[in-house]
Amino acid sequence: MRPVAILQHDQTQRGGFLVRCLEQLGMTTKLFCPDDGDSLPRSAPDYSGIVLLGSNRSVNDPVDWIGEELQLVRAAMRLDVPVLGHCFGAQMMAKSLGAHVGRNAWANIGWSRLHVTPHGSALFGADRVVGFNWHYETFAIPAGARRLLYGQHCLNKAFAIGRHMAFQCHFEVTEDIVSEWCDHAGTELAAAGGPAVQTRGQILAQMRTNLPALQATARRVYCEWARSLMLPRATCAPACSGSRRSPG
Question: Alpha-carbon distance 159 to 99, whole Å?
Fold first, then answer.
């Protein structure tokens, strides 16, 4: 089986729990760090799937590798190579599909309960799930996609189209990753403000309760996405169809 390409855009925003799950499923991964000068994959079909992680940048920044990555993502989705996006990665997917990406009404940082839509019920198996958020921008739902999750302070927290899944939250985090983000973001957290921003103390205090629940959801999501990698391209059931092997 071809490896999964993982596009990491920031040294602190690693694959974490996602990589652990893929490895436990017997899958290999190949890491690309375009913001550090790595060339992007030349051809999407060389990989069984493509993962897009977070970034401190905006998908609207005039940066060469962002434009190149948008082309790669468009090609992957057109050729039915499964794509999985988190935060910046989800925004990249939305923009690749022609949807607007712009500033959210509020900064969204910390733990929250996200509501599951009818289209997401098969994937999540619950009415609400725990998410970890760290974003200032948001996306519109692309044409043909289905909203899977929504939040109190951000309407569009996830969508699926075909076998592609995009999440405006971080299911990939581990205890080390969350702690590292908090350690590097004292000034940012103090300046962010708003009803959807937790303090460093609140984030760390709630981790023991929230992280196990988040990772249980993450494992369910990642196993479902990984199963889609094994299906013939262009013949799998759409992710919004309501079938057992789809999220909605």
Answer: 12
Please name the residue that has the structure tokens 């739902």: 141
Q: Report which of 63, 81, 60 is spatially closest to residue 72, judged by C-alpha positions.
A: 81
**Per-residue model confidence as pLDDT tens digits over 108-154:** 999 999 999 999 999 999 999 999 999 999 999 999 999 999 999 99
Element (H, E) at 6: strand 4-7
For 20-145, where are the E strands, in sequence order? 29-32, 49-52, 83-86, 101-116, 128-139
Residue 103 burial by Cβ neighbours in a 10 Å radius (0-12, 13-18, 19+)? exposed
Residue identified by tokens 């974490």 is 16
Asked if 86 and 52 touch (Cβ cutoff 8 Å), the reply is yes
d(CA 157, CA 167): 6
The answer to whether residue 208 scores a pLDDT higher than 50 is yes
Could you report how far apart the first and last alpha carbons of the chain are, in Å? 27
Alpha carbon separation from 95 to 73, 89, 192 (Å, rounded): 10, 10, 25
Q: Which fold has domain 4-229?
A: Rossmann fold (3.40.50)
243: pLDDT strictly greater than 50: no
State the pLDDT at residue 206.
98
Crossing angle of the two packed helices 175-184 and 207-229, in degrees rounded to 10: 120
**Helix, strand, coil shares of the chain as percentages rounded to 5?**
35, 25, 40
What's the rounded Cα separation, in Å, for the pair 53 and 4? 13
pLDDT tier for residue 244 given thresholds of 50, 70 and 90: very low
Give the up-direction half-sphere exposure of residue 71: CA atoms within 13 A in the CB hemisphere.
Answer: 8
